[in-house]
Amino acid sequence: MSSEQRELDLDPAGLAVRREVLGARHVDTTIAAVDDVTGDYQELITRYAWGGIWTRPGLDRRMRSAITLTALIAHGHLTELEMHLRAALRNGLTREEIVEVLLQSAIYCGVPAANSAFAVAKRVLAEDDPTA
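and the corresponding structure tokens:
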């Protein structure tokens, strides 16, 4: 740890789900890069997004992934979309279901947003193992 890093207080349930959904490698790399600027943010998203929302019993992870993909497309967050496309596959969405989510998003989020999303999806779905 650099002199600017600090010990994190990460929600254990949130961290476990975050690692399962996004992949341990991604999460470990992100946590290792925490410093005095990003530490509070990492605690916040681990506790509330991953521990508070992704652990709720009302929706399964497949449904949460589909919703997340749609929201990311709608707001044009393509870097996050790439990460969550891999997560969607890890959560059990098929390639065909992902394409259907993108098509649905074209109507409700707009064609330009879907154009960008399809370009990202084409790249991710062409990877040998996008869930790694």
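(Above: one complete record from the training split.) The mean pLDDT is 94.
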